[in-house]
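BUG: 3D viewer hangs when loading the predicted structure for this chain

Environment: internal workstation, default settings.
Expected: structure renders.
Actual: progress bar stalls at 90%.

Input used:
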Amino acid sequence: MSESVKKMNRKGREERKEKNEMNFASFAPFAVKPPPLPLPPEWLARDVAWSGRLAVWGRPRARHGLAWLLARSGDSIFWIAVIAVLLLRGQTLGWDLLWTVLATAVSVFIAKSIFKRERPSGPGRALSADKYSFPSGHAARVTAVAMTLSFAYPLWAVVWLVWATAVSLARVVLARHFLSDIIGGAIVGLVVSLLLQLFL
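Structure tokens produced before the viewer hung:
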């Protein structure tokens, strides 16, 4: 490959990189820094930057649609329906999941009332059930559910945990949350599920 061709390819890569960075910087939901959590400023800056990059990555229709479907599989209404079916069939797993979902919802409600971190701005904000984002209710719920299912069906543990991770990341791709929100939610879900295993 000639030197001139290499220079042209290098210039093209730099132009594409600059364009992507401009798209990220102008992406409305993450253009304004969210109210701070008790974390170092540089961590919060990275949180906003990485969250914005994920949201920009998910803007194409196919990726956005996949993220939407994944997020729906973590909705509370979906798991209420699953739990109802299990209880009607007399399966004890239904009770385990019921307590998991309820305990997670209460824990997230309390945490959101304390931190009061606003969601990313943008069209998706109006579609959210509440205006606070930390910790993520979806991330907490799917993590707790995945742990409960892993205790019940350990051979499928990897599948449950991969699903929970995908659902959580989908919420960032849809610009409903920052990455720190889903990390906080995952921690809440993990703690709730472990406590329920100990005391129930």
